[in-house]
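Reviewer comment 2.1 asked that we show a complete input and output for one of the modelled complexes. We chose the iron/sulfur cluster case, as it is the one discussed in the main text.
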Amino acid sequence: MKEIIEAWKTNARTDFEKNKEFLRSLPKGRSTDKAVSELHEQVFNESDCLKCANCCKTTPALVTRPDAKRIAKHLSIPPKTFIRKYLLEDIDGELMIARVPCTFLNEDNTCQIYEVRPQACREYPHTNQSGFSRRVKMNANNTIVCPAVHEIVNRLKAIDL
Ligand code: SF4
Ligand code: SF4
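Response of the prediction step:
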């Protein structure tokens, strides 16, 4: 994990445009999804999110209405109170956690609501989901946010798709 974080710290910002170009050039087929999904397993086996938590520290998590209902129940408060107290609504009506670092992030990088956390937190950074090559902008941005994504993209460059 240390090497993955160090490489990300040193290179993520300078690599950004190059990585975006590379992500744009990926074949839009299943071969890309298969390779990325295998690299996801590989890189996350070598990573420890508790030593990082950069996503929770820097990116407001999206919260769906069912997420809000589930988390509110867990906190024993009405959904409306949860939304008012902890969330922001954007101009499209999408809800997100109002504060970064996230209100629910503990000092030791654990999540206070881990069992009921938003779906977006469960799925982040989406590298094991189909359609990877269609999410160029998001993946490029995630190379800046997430050391694991930066590493997955670097390893992907060595694969003939
Ligand atoms: S930014 Fe990536 S490596 Fe860091 S905690 Fe989030 S998912 Fe894990
Ligand atoms: S809810 Fe938990 S997993 Fe999601 S951003 Fe906050 S601390 Fe991280």
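The helical segments are 2-24, 30-45, 54-58, 65-75, 79-86, 119-123, 136-145, 147-156. We note this here for comparison with the apo prediction described in Section 3.2.
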